[in-house]
Design goal:
The chain is an alpha/beta fold and 316 residues long. It is 39% helix and 18% strand.
Length: 316
């Protein structure tokens, strides 16, 4: 079933969903099952599976020259989605990214997903490669997420890259996209970022999932701005608890988001061993306020830590 159909059938009840990372190369599906098994008691209608683009290493050859070699640190998103659906009977939402894929490779991935009966995708541009200061698209690949959305929507209309395909099979992908309540770091301001977001919705996106945030006021203000701009699709808040003191520096640096002063002060005066509890309590308070406001779904970034997520979801 489509993600948006779950929202429609919930009749205003706030759903709970989770996002998992593929295991590192060499890992197994059991790594994913160990995270999801205890989370199934919360009856998530769908589970997101991230995709990490290839990275490069430089290997010295016998000639003394270095050869640039592509590696994939976290492969298996499509296979993981199929396994999750088979084991739990819930829908899986694979993340599709622009980086590392040509448009032909993207089309082939979408065909595989369609054949597997996976009809939800989250369309993302993706991050720049490690050690690169800006995003570089693959040759003959998409530069922006909106172009990826358009390609997916074309396939929903039976339009394929090969112009010789007449009356191609229509896919039924429900397309989600990302948003940033505190704006994407590359956008000049929030209004412009919302303009880009509306372009993705106009191109075919049916729902939105936000980057993590720690101040609900930022989310509510963002939703109001989106509605004022004519964006009327569901906007799902993405949540992640603070678990370590060093994250006060690492999260703003990596994700370009701010911490509320109240949370910073609480963490600063807390021993490291108790930081996780502070983060849990803060996320519980966020979740309860968001749920009371009638958000369609609470989407938790598990980051491989099901125990923390269980404590938060259990409180609701």
């Amino acid at each position: 079933m489509k993600v948006t159909e779950y929202f429609e059938r919930s009749a205003g009840t706030t759903l709970t969903s989770f996002e998992v990372l593929p295991p590192l190369k060499g890992g197994s599906m059991q790594d994913i099952f160990d995270i999801l098994d205890p989370l199934m008691e919360f009856k998530p209608p769908f589970v997101d599976v991230t995709y990490h683009r290839e990275e490069f290493v430089y290997k010295m050859q016998t000639s003394g020259y270095y050869e640039k070699t592509a590696i994939r640190k976290r492969p298996g998103t499509v296979g993981i989605c199929a396994s999750i659906m088979h084991r739990y009977g819930v829908d899986a939402v694979p993340h599709l990214i622009c980086g590392g894929f040509s448009i032909e490779e993207t089309e082939n991935a979408l065909i595989d997903l369609h054949f597997l009966g996976i009809n939800n995708v989250l369309a993302l541009r993706g991050d720049a490669r490690q050690f690169e200061d800006k995003f570089t698209p693959e040759p003959n690949g998409h530069k922006f997420a909106v172009d990826l959305v358009r390609q997916i929507q074309d396939m929903n209309n039976g339009v394929y890259l090969d112009a010789n395909i007449d009356k191609g099979s229509k896919t039924e992908f429900c397309i989600g996209v990302a948003a940033y309540p505190e704006k994407h770091f590359e956008a000049p301001n929030l209004d412009q970022d919302i303009k880009y977001l509306k372009e993705k919705v106009n191109a075919g996106a049916s729902y939105i999932v936000t980057q993590m945030f720690f101040d609900n006021k930022k989310y509510f203000e963002f939703v109001d701005k989106c509605r004022a701009a004519g964006i009327d699709v569901p906007i799902v808040p993405g949540l992640k608890p603070l678990t370590r003191k060093y994250q006060l520096n690492s999260i703003p640096r990596k994700f370009f988001i701010n911490f509320p002063e109240e949370l910073v002060k609480e963490v600063a005066k807390t021993d490291e061993k108790n930081i996780n509890q502070v983060g849990i309590e803060w996320c519980i308070a966020q979740s309860k306020e968001l749920k009371a406001a009638g958000v369609p779904c609470l989407h938790y970034y598990t980051m491989g830590d099901s125990n923390t997520t269980i404590k938060i979801a259990s409180s609701l």
